[in-house]
Amino acid sequence: MMGKQLEFDQRVNRLTKKHQKMDRGYRATMRKDGLVIMKPQRVRSAVPAKVLLLSLIGFFAFKAFLLSSLGPTGYQYRIDSLNEGTSVEQAGAWVMQIDPLSQLLSAQLNKVLY
């Protein structure tokens, strides 16, 4: 009797999880034998990966443009002045520090512009 109760509890738990997933949306599919089954839909990300990738590319392009227009010494001077500010400014300085990708893009940009 105990084995049957455990099997029943596991089935109830599995169905409860499936119904919680179906609260977020579901779709009906028909199997080959004609039985219609409701399957939970996958939750999609609020921000698509393409948008994140384009934002990252734009950020590095912005850094490269700043580095190219200010020059390495002017850019580093501004980063150093940010480092002396508040914690938010210090976080900005850490994000905006010169990295190899920005240097490479800046060098390519200098070849094209100047």
Structural notes for this entry:
This protein has 114 residues and is mainly alpha-helical. It folds into 2 domains: 8-40, no CATH class; 49-113, no CATH class. It is built from 4 helices and 2 strands; from the N terminus they run αββααα. It has a two-stranded antiparallel sheet. A hairpin with a 5-residue loop joins β1 (26-30) and β2. α2 (49-83) packs across α3 (87-95) and α2 (49-83) packs across α4. 6% of the residues are buried. The model has no long low-confidence stretch (mean pLDDT 89).
Class based on secondary structure composition and strand pairing: mainly alpha
Strand order of the largest sheet: 1-2
Q: What count of helical segments does DSSP give?
A: 4
From the spread of the alpha carbons, the general shape counts as elongated
Low-confidence stretches: none
- Number of separate structural domains: 2
* Strand elements, count: 2
> What is the N-to-C order of secondary-structure elements (H for helix, E for strand)?
HEEHHH
What does the oligomeric state look like here?
Answer: single chain
| Strand residues, percent | 5-15%
Give the end-to-end Cα distance, rounded to a whole number of Å: 84 Å
Radius of gyration, CA atoms, in whole angstroms = 27 Å
The overall pLDDT, averaged over residues, is 89
The biggest beta sheet, please? 2 strands, antiparallel
Q: Portion of residues in helices?
A: 55-70%
